[in-house]
Design brief:
The chain is an all-alpha fold and about 90 residues long. It has 1 helix and no strands.
Length: about 90
């Protein structure tokens, strides 16, 4: 009978210990959520700022390359490569 009481006491004690630990962990997590959420929002804002800067820079570079400002003032014919570009030698 004593052995049964000790076994039941041990099992219920371990269950109480686990429940107490879970409750303490839950309280600590609940208290840290606002701080973690503020940190998350700060990092999200920083990332969004960098994404905006890179996006604007990419849009400006794409618009500049498409606008034709990178071309020279006088157009030149494209060079050809290969045997067809060599003039035949006179006989």
């Amino acid at each position: 009978m004593a052995l049964l009481g000790m076994a039941v006491g041990f099992v219920t004690g371990r269950a109480y210990q686990a429940a107490h630990r879970a409750h303490r962990d839950w309280k600590n997590t609940k208290e840290s959520v606002p701080l973690l959420f503020r940190a998350f929002l700060g990092l999200l804002g920083s990332a969004a700022g960098w994404i905006l800067i890179v996006g604007v820079a990419a849009a400006v570079l794409i618009a500049w390359s498409v606008s034709g400002l990178t071309e020279s003032a006088t157009p030149r014919p494209a060079g050809t490569v290969g045997p067809s570009s060599v003039a035949p030698s006179p006989p």
